[in-house]
Amino acid sequence: MSGLLGPLNNLAGGLFLLNAFAMVATRQVRGCLRFFIWQSLCLVASAALIGGITGTIELFIVAAINLLTKPIIIPILLARSVPEDIHTRREIVQVLTIPSALLSALVIAVVSYFAGRTLLSAAAPLVPAANVPIGIAGLLLGAFTIAVRREAVPQLFGLMAMENGAFYAAIAFAPDLPLIAEVAAAFDALVIVLLVAILTRAIHERVGTTEVSSLTTLKEEPRP
Amino acid sequence: MTTSLLFAIPLLYLLAAVLSLVPLGRWFARGLTIVATVGALVAAGGCAAQAVAAGSITAIPDWVGVDGFGALLLLLISFVGALAAVFSWGYMKVRARERGKRAIRLYHVNFNLFLFSIVMVPMMQEVALAWIAIELTTLLSVLLVGFENNHEALEAAWKYVILTMIGAAIALLGIIVLYRALQDAHGGPFTWSALQAAAPGLSPVLFEAGFLLLLVGFGTKVGLVPLHVWLPDAHSQAPSPVCAILSGIETSVILYVILRLFPVAAALPAVHLQNWAIAFGLISVGVAAFLLIQVRDLKRLFAFSTVEHMGIILTAAGFGIASNSFIAPYQMLTHALAKPLCFFAAGSALMVAGTRDIAGLRGLIRRAPLAGAALLIGGLAITGAPPFALFLSEFSIIKAGLSGGHYVAVALLVAFIVVAFCAVLAHINRIVFGHPEPLPKAGAPFPFTSAVALVLAVVPVIVLGVWIPGPIHSLLSLAGASIGGAAP
Predict the structure, then answer these.
(1) What is the pLDDT of residues B231-248, one digit of tens each?
(2) Of A163, A206, A222, the CB nearest to B169
(3) CA B426 – CA B293 distance, rounded (Å)
(4) Is the pTM of the predicted complex or chain greater than 0.90?
(5) Rounded Cα–Cα distance for residues B307 and B222 (Å)
(6) How many separate domains does chain B show?
(7) Number of folded domains that form chain A
């Protein structure tokens, strides 16, 4: 039985990484949301599988918390607090073209592999070792997503993807992290979403756009 | 009895935040906030006295407690918080007149919650919970940064939340790596003191990786160059009392978390944290010093000065890692006393003249003598001019650097501090004594409570410049011991 869990966990890892790449490439706000939900489901699956492999009860609770918050509560929260027309937006002008963004993402993934390997070689041997480089890649690709997305809501998903990446590494690297920290972090993610949604709405109302990359009035040069 | 004072501090802030929601007229939330913050200051004073007497306070073993450094920070947070609450009274009356009662109430709710989140950081002994507390400091201050609700403030709030949250996610990975390092060494609770106790058995690679991830992640929140880009925006767009808390103490509290790893490194000869600290610190001081020359906005001037001072504190931690570890907390103390004065003076200038533009503020001392004088004192104090507290602390940093043999680093540090001194005082000179242009518009009258806050903020900056009271001195050496290399 446990012979099957390892390969399944690797499959979840591959899908997790694939969704991180998809978030870098997609131009639609809705597309970003969809890939974020899929990525979170991969995280949930991996947490449950590693829980099965190592027999850690906490990981099942972590999986349950993540299942409840990320694919369910966060999309509902966003749909309620951000006006509909922001969700249907897509980026016309891009920071990077999709091929060059994907190539850069590939470089990031390779770098994460080596960074993860260095960390793994310094620590005591782990069973699901693949989680650590994939988690680091998820973290860095999330940051890269924020850099290449111009819209407010996709930047939020970049942020959430970074957190997903950190937790993806954590479920293998620190499976017995105190549960209270995990619960607090999940609650914290909800507060982030709520606050960023409030801010997005305020920017939408006061500035008239949600293209946050065009907010560049604060600098040292004299104002025109 | 011993721990009830410690719990009283966050509970007072929480209570004030909840009660501020009660719609009981304009004075209620303001007055309540002042009462609660002053109460918290008294409780923090009691905690500091207990910490000096007992060495540390443990409320819940392995979870909540403070040592000397934590007690010092609690005292500073509650001091800056109480001053900011007093200053808020008049500032909100003048600057938020048209915003309505609800906005003022929500401001005070948020203000108290923000202070609550800051005091949780030094109280949390569990490392993962300290991370959560730091997340909360960002989340509970975003709406304060965007309080003005105009284009600039919302832009600043957006940059603030996105960039510091990127940092927080990186720091989370660092926390996880440190946890693994601790578990590989011997396991047990994940606290700062457990890390220190397990130090000889930690894997140097994991520890240094964790430290660097924390340095980059929390360094974003501290405003270390090149991760500082959000800081001048957020620290200039927030209402002035909030700026005083953000710049004066919040950044220092986050830096404290990074400094907690220094005594751990002392037991690992393969890890050289002091090199990272001195390099990152000097880059921050240098870049900020030259950026100070070209600012056009008075509050941005003081925000860049915060970047500079965070660099100085980090450099000091690098200099003092073995023997003079009290110099970093000392610099935190003097910075936390001087920075609120600067932001209160800038807020007063804003109230009187209706602008933050350095060019539009010229001749301030003729329009508002008190605000002008406070700005002059604040400028002299924050740049480390002789009669003020920062002169002594910066002098002790230079002394420690020289006795540690860091001659090049000390030379660079002194050069950058001199550049920053000239830059800040050139701007302040133009504002205070410059020829006033035709007055843009009639300013509001200067509220009495703001004047009180200014005077209260000036006193400790001057007093600590000539004399350090005995209890403060023992608290400082205790704080130094908790990040020094000595055994716990």
Answers:
(1) 999 999 999 999 999 999
(2) A163
(3) 9
(4) yes
(5) 8
(6) 1
(7) 1
Q: Rounded CA gap, B383 and B427, in Å? A: 12
Q: Specify if A148 maps to a domain.
A: yes
Inside any domain, residue A219: no
Domain that holds residue A195: 2-214
In a domain, B209, yes or no: yes
Measure in Å the smallest separation between the Cα of A99 and chain B Cα atoms. Answer: 24
Domain assignment present for residue A158? The answer is: yes
ipTM over the 0.85 cut-off: yes
Q: CA of B403 to nearest chain A CA: how many angstroms apart?
A: 36
C-alpha span between A162 and A137 (Å, rounded):
9
**Per the domain annotation, does A93 fall within a domain?**
yes
Residue B98 pLDDT class (50, 70, 90 cuts): confident
Nearest CB to B176 within list A118, A173, A207: A173
- How far CA B12 is from CA of B5, B8, B44, B112, B121, in Å, comes to 10, 6, 11, 9, 16
Task: Return all residues near B12 (Cβ < 8 A) that are at least 6 apart.
Answer: B36, B37, B39, B40, B43
Domain of B343 in residue numbering reads as 4-483
Interface of B with A in 122-151 (CB under 8 A): 126, 128-129, 131-132, 135-136, 139, 142-143, 146, 149-151
Please report residues of B whose CB lies closer than 8 A to that of A139. 169-170, 173
β-partners of residue B304 are none
**Largest Cα span, chain B:** 70
pLDDT tens, B104-162? 899 999 999 999 999 999 999 999 999 999 999 999 999 999 999 899 999 999 999 99
Answer yes or no: is B488 within a domain: no
Q: Is residue B265 part of a domain?
A: yes
Q: What are phi and psi of B126, to 5 degrees?
A: -75, 125
- Residues, chain B, total? 488
- A chain contacts of residue B173, beta-carbon cutoff 8 Å: 135-136, 139, 165-166, 169
| Residue B64 tokens, joined | 């909540």
Tell me how far CA of residue B449 lies from CA of B27, B31, B76, in angstroms.
13, 11, 21
Name, in order, each residue with C-beta under 8 angstroms of A133's C-beta and a sequence gap of 6 or more: A112, A113, A115, A116, A117, A120
Sign of the alpha-carbon dihedral angle for B82, B87, B90, B93 = negative
The structure tokens listed for B344 are 């209160």
Contact B204, B230 (CB under 8 A): no
- Work out the minimum CA distance from A199 to partner chain B, whole angstroms: 7
Radius of gyration of chain A (CA): 18
